[in-house]
Protein backbone atom coordinates (compact mmCIF):
# COMPACT_ATOMS: atom_id res chain seq x y z
CA UNK A 1 0.00 0.00 0.00
CA UNK A 2 1.22 3.47 -0.79
CA UNK A 3 1.14 5.46 2.43
CA UNK A 4 -0.61 8.75 2.05
CA UNK A 5 1.18 11.93 3.02
CA UNK A 6 -1.69 13.96 4.41
CA UNK A 7 -1.93 17.65 3.67
CA UNK A 8 -2.58 19.50 6.91
CA UNK A 9 -5.40 22.04 7.20
CA UNK A 10 -5.18 25.57 8.49
CA UNK A 11 -4.08 26.17 12.06
CA UNK A 12 -7.59 27.32 12.95
CA UNK A 13 -9.09 24.07 11.69
CA UNK A 14 -6.43 22.02 13.41
CA UNK A 15 -7.11 23.86 16.63
CA UNK A 16 -10.69 22.65 16.48
CA UNK A 17 -9.39 19.11 16.12
CA UNK A 18 -6.65 18.69 18.63
CA UNK A 19 -8.19 21.47 20.66
CA UNK A 20 -11.65 19.95 20.84
CA UNK A 21 -14.74 21.83 21.96
CA UNK A 22 -14.57 23.29 25.48
CA UNK A 23 -16.92 22.11 28.19
CA UNK A 24 -19.46 24.53 29.56
CA UNK A 25 -18.08 23.98 33.07
CA UNK A 26 -15.02 26.00 34.22
CA UNK A 27 -11.83 24.70 32.62
CA UNK A 28 -8.11 25.25 32.95
CA UNK A 29 -6.37 27.87 30.82
CA UNK A 30 -5.52 26.31 27.47
CA UNK A 31 -3.57 28.68 25.25
CA UNK A 32 -1.21 26.90 22.80
CA UNK A 33 0.81 30.12 22.36
CA UNK A 34 1.80 30.16 26.04
CA UNK A 35 4.45 28.03 27.76
CA UNK A 36 3.99 25.79 29.54
CA UNK A 37 1.32 24.05 27.48
CA UNK A 38 0.30 20.40 27.93
CA UNK A 39 -1.74 18.30 25.53
CA UNK A 40 -3.19 14.80 25.81
CA UNK A 41 -5.36 13.35 23.06
CA UNK A 42 -6.97 9.97 22.32
CA UNK A 43 -9.45 9.16 19.56
CA UNK A 44 -11.04 6.11 17.94
CA UNK A 45 -13.69 5.83 15.26
CA UNK A 46 -15.12 4.77 11.91
CA UNK A 47 -15.31 7.08 8.91
CA UNK A 48 -18.30 5.87 6.90
CA UNK A 49 -17.50 7.92 3.80
CA UNK A 50 -13.83 6.88 3.89
CA UNK A 51 -12.36 10.39 3.76
CA UNK A 52 -11.71 10.55 7.51
CA UNK A 53 -14.76 12.60 8.34
CA UNK A 54 -16.41 11.18 11.46
CA UNK A 55 -20.06 11.52 12.46
CA UNK A 56 -20.73 12.10 16.19
CA UNK A 57 -22.10 8.61 16.72
CA UNK A 58 -19.08 6.94 15.11
CA UNK A 59 -16.21 7.94 17.41
CA UNK A 60 -15.10 8.64 20.97
CA UNK A 61 -12.52 11.17 22.11
CA UNK A 62 -10.55 12.05 25.22
CA UNK A 63 -8.96 15.48 24.87
CA UNK A 64 -7.02 17.43 27.50
CA UNK A 65 -5.14 20.70 27.38
CA UNK A 66 -3.80 23.02 30.07
CA UNK A 67 -1.23 25.71 30.75
CA UNK A 68 -0.79 24.48 34.32
CA UNK A 69 -0.23 20.74 34.53
CA UNK A 70 -0.08 17.64 32.31
CA UNK A 71 -2.64 14.86 32.37
CA UNK A 72 -1.02 11.59 33.37
CA UNK A 73 -3.28 9.49 31.13
CA UNK A 74 -5.70 10.03 28.24
CA UNK A 75 -7.61 7.02 26.92
CA UNK A 76 -10.43 5.79 24.72
CA UNK A 77 -11.67 2.20 24.72
CA UNK A 78 -14.83 0.60 23.44
CA UNK A 79 -16.55 -0.39 20.23
CA UNK A 80 -18.31 1.18 17.25
CA UNK A 81 -20.72 -0.31 14.72
CA UNK A 82 -21.46 1.10 11.29
CA UNK A 83 -23.27 -0.44 8.32
CA UNK A 84 -22.59 -3.98 9.48
CA UNK A 85 -18.98 -3.36 10.43
CA UNK A 86 -17.88 -3.76 14.05
CA UNK A 87 -14.77 -2.10 15.48
CA UNK A 88 -13.35 -2.64 18.97
CA UNK A 89 -10.46 -0.41 19.94
CA UNK A 90 -8.25 1.05 22.62
CA UNK A 91 -5.91 4.01 22.55
CA UNK A 92 -4.02 5.52 25.47
CA UNK A 93 -1.12 7.85 26.07
CA UNK A 94 0.66 8.59 29.34
CA UNK A 95 2.68 11.65 30.28
CA UNK A 96 5.82 10.05 31.73
CA UNK A 97 7.86 13.06 32.80
CA UNK A 98 9.80 15.83 31.11
CA UNK A 99 9.63 15.12 27.35
CA UNK A 100 8.80 11.48 27.92
CA UNK A 101 5.59 9.69 26.95
CA UNK A 102 4.15 6.22 26.41
CA UNK A 103 1.48 5.56 23.79
CA UNK A 104 -0.54 2.57 22.60
CA UNK A 105 -3.21 2.05 19.95
CA UNK A 106 -5.02 -1.08 18.77
CA UNK A 107 -8.17 -1.96 16.86
CA UNK A 108 -9.92 -5.09 15.63
CA UNK A 109 -12.44 -4.72 12.81
CA UNK A 110 -14.91 -7.41 11.78
CA UNK A 111 -16.80 -7.29 8.47
CA UNK A 112 -15.19 -4.02 7.29
CA UNK A 113 -17.05 -2.14 4.60
CA UNK A 114 -15.18 -1.31 1.40
CA UNK A 115 -15.95 2.42 1.60
CA UNK A 116 -15.05 2.85 5.28
CA UNK A 117 -11.87 4.05 6.99
CA UNK A 118 -10.86 2.99 10.54
CA UNK A 119 -8.63 4.99 12.86
CA UNK A 120 -7.25 5.06 16.43
CA UNK A 121 -4.68 7.53 17.78
CA UNK A 122 -3.36 8.48 21.23
CA UNK A 123 -0.63 10.97 22.07
CA UNK A 124 0.92 13.58 24.35
CA UNK A 125 2.36 17.00 23.55
CA UNK A 126 4.01 19.90 25.37
CA UNK A 127 5.52 23.33 25.09
CA UNK A 128 8.01 24.35 27.78
CA UNK A 129 10.89 26.76 28.25
CA UNK A 130 14.41 25.77 29.32
CA UNK A 131 17.72 27.55 29.92
CA UNK A 132 21.33 26.43 29.94
CA UNK A 133 23.68 27.47 32.75
CA UNK A 134 27.46 27.09 32.47
CA UNK A 135 30.64 28.86 33.56
CA UNK A 136 31.89 28.58 29.99
CA UNK A 137 30.83 30.82 27.13
CA UNK A 138 32.15 28.82 24.20
CA UNK A 139 29.07 26.74 23.40
CA UNK A 140 27.95 26.90 19.78
CA UNK A 141 25.22 24.29 19.53
CA UNK A 142 22.95 22.04 21.56
CA UNK A 143 22.05 18.57 20.32
CA UNK A 144 18.86 16.85 21.51
CA UNK A 145 18.78 13.06 21.20
CA UNK A 146 15.48 11.19 21.17
CA UNK A 147 15.04 7.46 21.67
CA UNK A 148 11.85 5.90 20.31
CA UNK A 149 11.10 2.25 21.08
CA UNK A 150 8.05 0.29 20.03
CA UNK A 151 6.58 -2.37 17.81
CA UNK A 152 3.72 -2.77 15.37
CA UNK A 153 1.54 -5.63 14.16
CA UNK A 154 -0.81 -5.51 11.16
CA UNK A 155 -2.93 -8.49 10.15
CA UNK A 156 -4.06 -6.82 6.94
CA UNK A 157 -1.55 -5.71 4.25
CA UNK A 158 -3.36 -2.41 3.81
CA UNK A 159 -3.08 -1.31 7.43
CA UNK A 160 -0.69 1.22 8.89
CA UNK A 161 0.34 1.05 12.54
CA UNK A 162 3.14 3.28 13.77
CA UNK A 163 4.52 5.76 16.28
CA UNK A 164 5.22 9.39 15.52
CA UNK A 165 7.41 12.13 16.98
CA UNK A 166 7.49 15.89 16.24
CA UNK A 167 9.98 18.20 17.96
CA UNK A 168 11.21 21.75 17.56
CA UNK A 169 13.54 23.95 19.61
CA UNK A 170 14.09 27.67 19.16
CA UNK A 171 15.29 30.77 20.97
CA UNK A 172 12.60 32.82 19.23
CA UNK A 173 9.50 33.58 21.35
CA UNK A 174 5.98 33.85 20.01
CA UNK A 175 5.52 30.34 18.64
CA UNK A 176 2.34 28.29 18.70
CA UNK A 177 2.25 24.57 19.57
CA UNK A 178 0.20 23.97 16.40
CA UNK A 179 3.12 25.32 14.34
CA UNK A 180 4.55 21.81 14.71
CA UNK A 181 1.97 20.64 12.15
CA UNK A 182 1.15 23.67 10.02
CA UNK A 183 4.57 24.67 8.68
CA UNK A 184 5.07 27.48 11.16
CA UNK A 185 8.44 25.96 12.12
CA UNK A 186 10.89 25.40 9.29
CA UNK A 187 13.24 22.85 10.87
CA UNK A 188 11.03 20.46 12.81
CA UNK A 189 12.13 16.94 13.66
CA UNK A 190 9.39 14.69 12.22
CA UNK A 191 9.81 10.91 12.22
CA UNK A 192 7.78 7.71 12.17
CA UNK A 193 8.75 4.47 13.89
CA UNK A 194 11.40 3.29 16.35
CA UNK A 195 14.88 4.77 16.23
CA UNK A 196 17.34 7.28 17.64
CA UNK A 197 16.85 10.78 16.29
CA UNK A 198 18.84 13.97 16.83
CA UNK A 199 18.01 17.64 16.52
CA UNK A 200 20.63 20.43 16.62
CA UNK A 201 19.98 23.99 17.73
CA UNK A 202 22.57 26.79 17.33
CA UNK A 203 23.21 28.43 20.71
CA UNK A 204 24.88 31.84 20.84
CA UNK A 205 23.87 32.94 24.34
CA UNK A 206 23.47 30.23 26.97
CA UNK A 207 21.34 32.52 29.11
CA UNK A 208 18.67 32.85 26.42
CA UNK A 209 15.45 30.89 27.07
CA UNK A 210 14.89 27.99 24.68
CA UNK A 211 11.33 27.17 23.67
CA UNK A 212 10.70 23.45 23.16
CA UNK A 213 7.70 22.00 21.29
CA UNK A 214 6.80 18.31 21.22
CA UNK A 215 4.17 15.80 20.09
CA UNK A 216 4.26 12.02 20.02
CA UNK A 217 1.62 9.37 19.39
CA UNK A 218 0.80 5.80 18.51
CA UNK A 219 -1.82 5.19 15.83
CA UNK A 220 -3.51 2.57 13.65
CA UNK A 221 -5.40 3.32 10.46
CA UNK A 222 -6.87 1.53 7.44
CA UNK A 223 -8.09 3.39 4.38
CA UNK A 224 -10.94 2.34 2.06
CA UNK A 225 -10.09 -0.42 -0.38
CA UNK A 226 -7.01 -1.55 1.56
CA UNK A 227 -8.64 -4.69 2.96
CA UNK A 228 -10.87 -7.59 1.90
CA UNK A 229 -14.54 -6.87 2.72
CA UNK A 230 -15.91 -9.38 5.20
CA UNK A 231 -12.56 -10.24 6.76
CA UNK A 232 -11.50 -9.60 10.35
CA UNK A 233 -8.23 -7.76 10.96
CA UNK A 234 -6.28 -6.41 13.93
CA UNK A 235 -3.72 -3.60 13.99
CA UNK A 236 -1.57 -2.62 16.98
CA UNK A 237 1.00 0.12 17.58
CA UNK A 238 2.72 -0.50 20.91
CA UNK A 239 4.95 2.42 21.90
CA UNK A 240 4.41 1.97 25.63
CA UNK A 241 8.15 1.48 26.26
CA UNK A 242 8.73 5.25 26.19
CA UNK A 243 9.45 7.92 23.66
CA UNK A 244 11.97 9.98 25.57
CA UNK A 245 14.37 12.89 25.20
CA UNK A 246 17.29 10.73 26.29
CA UNK A 247 20.21 13.12 26.09
CA UNK A 248 21.19 16.75 25.53
CA UNK A 249 24.75 17.77 24.71
CA UNK A 250 26.54 21.12 24.34
CA UNK A 251 29.44 21.56 21.93
CA UNK A 252 31.77 24.34 20.85
CA UNK A 253 32.47 25.45 17.26
CA UNK A 254 34.95 22.59 16.76
CA UNK A 255 32.53 19.96 18.00
CA UNK A 256 34.21 19.52 21.37
CA UNK A 257 31.83 18.82 24.28
CA UNK A 258 31.37 21.53 26.89
CA UNK A 259 32.66 20.12 30.16
CA UNK A 260 30.34 21.61 32.76
CA UNK A 261 26.77 22.84 32.35
CA UNK A 262 23.18 22.31 33.42
CA UNK A 263 19.78 22.68 31.78
CA UNK A 264 16.79 23.78 33.87
CA UNK A 265 13.10 24.26 33.32
CA UNK A 266 12.43 28.02 33.39
CA UNK A 267 8.93 27.65 34.88
CA UNK A 268 9.62 25.07 37.60
CA UNK A 269 13.36 25.41 38.22
CA UNK A 270 13.70 21.63 37.83
CA UNK A 271 17.19 20.42 36.90
CA UNK A 272 16.70 18.45 33.66
CA UNK A 273 20.10 17.58 32.15
CA UNK A 274 23.77 18.22 32.76
CA UNK A 275 27.01 17.09 31.12
CA UNK A 276 26.51 13.60 32.59
CA UNK A 277 23.10 13.02 30.98
CA UNK A 278 19.42 13.12 31.82
CA UNK A 279 18.48 13.99 35.40
CA UNK A 280 14.70 14.40 35.03
CA UNK A 281 12.91 11.22 36.12
CA UNK A 282 10.92 9.04 33.73
CA UNK A 283 7.72 7.63 35.22
CA UNK A 284 6.97 3.89 35.00
CA UNK A 285 4.10 2.60 32.84
CA UNK A 286 0.68 3.59 34.21
CA UNK A 287 -2.01 1.24 35.46
CA UNK A 288 -4.58 1.06 32.66
CA UNK A 289 -8.16 0.65 33.94
CA UNK A 290 -10.60 -1.79 32.36
CA UNK A 291 -12.93 -0.20 29.76
CA UNK A 292 -15.96 -0.32 32.10
CA UNK A 293 -14.07 1.32 34.95
CA UNK A 294 -12.73 3.99 32.61
CA UNK A 295 -16.22 4.81 31.35
CA UNK A 296 -17.48 5.36 34.90
CA UNK A 297 -14.47 7.50 35.75
CA UNK A 298 -14.90 9.59 32.62
CA UNK A 299 -18.57 10.21 33.40
CA UNK A 300 -17.64 11.43 36.87
CA UNK A 301 -14.96 13.76 35.54
CA UNK A 302 -17.36 15.29 33.05
CA UNK A 303 -19.91 15.96 35.78
CA UNK A 304 -17.35 17.63 38.01
CA UNK A 305 -15.99 19.56 35.04
CA UNK A 306 -12.58 20.12 36.62
CA UNK A 307 -10.56 20.05 33.44
CA UNK A 308 -10.81 20.61 29.72
CA UNK A 309 -11.70 17.12 28.59
CA UNK A 310 -14.07 16.13 25.84
CA UNK A 311 -15.50 12.69 25.10
CA UNK A 312 -18.28 13.36 22.58
CA UNK A 313 -18.24 15.86 19.74
CA UNK A 314 -21.12 18.21 19.08
CA UNK A 315 -20.67 17.88 15.33
CA UNK A 316 -18.57 16.06 12.79
CA UNK A 317 -14.84 15.55 12.79
CA UNK A 318 -12.87 15.89 9.59
CA UNK A 319 -9.55 15.15 7.97
CA UNK A 320 -6.79 13.38 9.89
CA UNK A 321 -3.05 13.13 9.50
CA UNK A 322 -1.33 9.88 10.55
CA UNK A 323 -0.64 10.12 14.24
CA UNK A 324 -2.55 13.39 14.66
CA UNK A 325 -6.32 13.25 14.74
CA UNK A 326 -9.54 14.29 12.99
CA UNK A 327 -9.97 17.97 12.26
CA UNK A 328 -13.46 19.37 12.66
CA UNK A 329 -14.58 21.92 10.13
CA UNK A 330 -11.84 21.24 7.59
Number of strands: 17
Query: Whole-number average pLDDT?
Result: 82
Name the poorly predicted regions.
1-27, 293-319, 326-330
Largest sheet: 10 strands, antiparallel
Tell me the number of helical segments per DSSP (H or I, 4 or more residues long).
3
Structural write-up:
The chain has three helices and 17 strands. The protein has one domain (11-310). The chain is mostly beta strands and 330 residues long. Strands 1, 2, 6, 9, 10, 12, 14, 15, 16 and 17 form a ten-stranded antiparallel sheet that branches. Strands 3, 4, 5, 7, 8, 11 and 13 form a seven-stranded antiparallel sheet that branches.
Task: Quickly describe the structure.
Helix content is 8%, strand content 45%. The chain is built from 3 helices and 17 strands. The strands form 2 sheets. Strands 1, 2, 6, 9, 10, 12, 14, 15, 16 and 17 form a 10-stranded antiparallel sheet that branches. Strands 3, 4, 5, 7, 8, 11 and 13 form a 7-stranded antiparallel sheet that branches.
